[in-house]
Structure formats: C-alpha cells, structure tokens
Amino acid sequence: MTGKAADNSRMRLAGLIRKEVYQIMRDPSAIGIAFLLPVLLLLIFGYGVSLDAEHVPVGIVVEKPSPEATNFTSGFQNNRYFEPIAFDSIQEAEKALMERRVTAIVWTRNNFTKKLLSTSDSPIGVIVNGVDANQARIIKGYIMGVWMRWLDKFARAQGASLNVPVMVKKRIWFNAAVRSRNFLVPGLIAVIMTLIGGMLTSMVVAREWERGTMEALLVTPVRKKEIILGKIIPYFVLGMGGMMLSVIMTVWVFQVPFRGSFIALTFSSALFMLTAIGLGLIISVAAGSQFVAGQIAIVITFLPAFILSGFVFDIGSMPAPIQGITHIVAARYFVSILQTLFLAGDIWHIYIVNWLWLTGMALFFFMVIRRKFHKRLQ
Q1: What angle, rounded to 10 degrees, do the helices at 224-248 and 180-194 form?
Q2: Please, what are the domains in the chain?
Q3: What does the pLDDT look like over 14-47, one tens digit per residue?
C-alpha cells in the first residue's frame, strides 16, 4: 500500500470510528451498559449477595442447666456467625426450625455433664436445616468448631487430654478471611466485560441494516477490514473503561486485595475484550435484527459467562459433560485469571495457559467474521 493509499485508509478508519463514537454518545443504553450497569452489578454482588454464613439464627436447648452446659452455650454468644435463641424444649425448637425462625438447633441433653469426654455417646444433638446444602455444611462446620474448641478447653481444665485421633490445623491460603466477596467480585468483572463486549457489539451491524445506513456505507470506498475495525475500536475502548471502573470499585470500595501485576491485568482484559467483541460481531452479522441479536447474545454470551465460567459455581463440581462444555466459554479463562490476579498473585503458568485459550478463540472469531461479513447487499 502506497503512502497516499495508507493515508486515505487511516482517514476512512478515523471517520468510521468517529461515526461509531457519535452513535454511542446518542445511545443512552450503551453508556448505561458500559458504566452504570457495572456499578449496579458490583453493588448488588458486593453487598447483597454473600455465600458466607454469618448471624445465623440458631436455637439453643438446654434440657438440664449446669455450669458446663452454660459454659458451652456461651460460645455462641457474641459470635459473628451465630444469633442464639433460647428454647425451653426440643419440641419448641423443632417447631421454630420448621417455621424457619431458626436455621439450626444445638441441643444439650439432660446427661450432658456425665457424657463429657466419653466416647460411648454424644452429649449434644445438632439439627441443621438442609434445604441449602452448601450453607448447611458451613453451619455444621461452625457448630462443630465451637464444640471442639470448648471440649478441648474443658479437658485441659480437668487435667485430661481430648482423645482425638487426628488433630487438624487449618491454614487457608489466598483468602484467609474466607470472604465470599473476595471470590465473587473479581469474577464479576468477566461478566461485566462480557455484557459490554458481547451485548453491545452484537447489535452494531444489525442496527445498521435496520436503520438503512448500511446500504449507504457499502457504496462508499471504505474496505471491509476498515468497517470491522471501525466497529471494534470504539467498543474495545468502552469495554476497557468499564473494566477500569470495575477494578477501582473492587479494590477501593469492596477492599478486595489485588496481588498481581497491573500489566498482566491490562493484557488479559484486552485479550478477553477482543474475544467478547469477536463473538458479539459474529452474532451481529448473522442476526437480522437488533432484537434477535440481543436475545442470541444473552443466551450465547451472558448466561454461559454467569453460570459456566466458575464465577459462582465451581466447575470441578459440575458433571463431566458440562465441564467439557465450559471449555468453549471464554469467560471461564478470564475468571481464572482474575481470581489468580486478585487473590494469589502472579502465577504465570495459569496466565499463559488461559492466554493461549483466549488468543485461539479470538483468532477463530475474527476469521469467521472476515469470511461471513461481505461488503455487498444480501
């Protein structure tokens, strides 16, 4: 390409980008999805959604009061995980459990003192509402933690040793506070960028056909690659702006630690944004209208990013066929990178493997766009 031709190409590209920027500025929904929706989603998931079990209403039943029983049940007082509620009988507590006024019951029986440090029978009973299986396991673990700590303290006070075959010393890496917010909020950035890259770009070509502006564009001397770049660049910048806003809120508002490299974050975000835009443009080229493109984008981009990326649900616990499907969900690789960046730090092996997957997907998407997008009337 000669210097004059290159200059003309740059001028045409600049004009297309300027046209797309004006279109974005005239479309309040685009600005809302790019900047207002991330704030709304982060506030909802940061403050409203929690996988932690805290301030759990637990019923306390003491059949026969004793110093030992009182001392044990006091462990549930002033504890951020529990809100104890006293009941006179197990029947009252079970009724409260069925009415969901309490989530669990701790029951010290009338032979509590005699059964202490005995291996023949348990001196306490624990009943947990198992409707939410994950929360039930967490609550059971917290109750057993209170019990084992008190039992060890009681045994030492009696000059005995607690007969436990295995002593477990727990050490939690990467998220020592065990805050679900630290896990959820970084992954949400991938969902936000999927919305910006996939949802917005899924309608750009369909919108041109609906409004009749594509015919006018096709008769101009602009080339196919210039049209594609003119669509990609503005939304890429918009997506990276949404990413920066999300990261700022994640670190400064929700106090999620950021232990990785900002360069790695920027590169990973740019790579994922190109992948999301590529998929959105494929949908836009294939769809005949904005409405159809938007519906397809929700099914193909947003829902898989929300459900199958590991953002909320652990991929390792999914059935094997579903785990296989997750490999074609681009957000899976970006969520893995984000959780590593924020919680673990720079683990380059994880970065490189996921970068390779995202690069391959982006190249594939843009090859499909180049083959399917034609500068002619259909």
Answers
A1: 160
A2: 3-49+179-372 (no CATH), 56-157 (3.40.1710.10)
A3: 887 888 788 777 777 777 777 888 888 888 888 8
